[in-house]
Amino acid sequence: MNKLFVSDQKGNIYMADKYWAFRKKTKVIHEIRLRKDCQHLKDKHKLSFCTIADYLGLNETILRRFLKGETGSLSMKNYKAMCKLGQLAKELKEAEEYRPEDKGDDS
């Protein structure tokens, strides 16, 4: 019986079943953080589900169900979209810190 081995980005080699179990655990933990980050952005910046979903390229219903915990786990496509939350947070922070008077007109 042949065992299937896979390697991660760091070059570590795992038996396939242990690798996928590890990946699933880390994805679940990351999804918990994504839920909290998304809820924080929604509350702090008073963003609607629709606005966040549009930015992430998700269906609004998927986002609502994810934040309410109605979905067990996101599909890989939706998970990758949710990982863009960091970029949204960064852009919101830049927008808050933007000061038009500091732009300086050289004309």
Could you list the spans in which at least 5 consecutive residues all have pLDDT below 50?
Answer: none
Strand fraction: 5-15%
What gap, in angstroms, lies between the N and C termini?
Answer: 76 Å
CATH topology type: 434 Repressor (Amino-terminal Domain)
Helix content estimate: 55-70%
CATH architecture: Orthogonal Bundle
CATH top level label: Mainly Alpha
Mean pLDDT: 80
Q: Sketch the topology as an H/E string, one letter per element.
A: EEHHHHH
Widest sheet: strand ordering: 1-2
Please tally the helical runs, counting DSSP H or I stretches of 4 or more residues: 5
* Shape descriptor: globular
Description:
- This protein has 107 residues and is mainly alpha-helical.
- Helix content is 63%, strand content 6%.
- The chain has a single domain, classed as 434 Repressor (Amino-terminal Domain) (Orthogonal Bundle), CATH 1.10.260.
- The chain contains five helices and two strands; from the N terminus they run ββααααα.
- A hairpin with a 5-residue loop joins β1 (5-7) and β2.
From the structure above, extract its key features.
107 residues, mainly alpha, 434 Repressor (Amino-terminal Domain), two-stranded antiparallel ribbon, 5 helices, 2 strands, globular
Q: What layout of secondary structure does this protein have?
A:
Layout: E1 5-7, E2 13-15, H1 16-45, H2 49-56, H3 60-68, H4 76-82, H5 85-97
Summarize the structure.
By secondary structure, this protein is mainly α. It has five helices and two strands; from the N terminus they run ββααααα. The chain has a single domain, classed as 434 Repressor (Amino-terminal Domain), CATH 1.10.260.
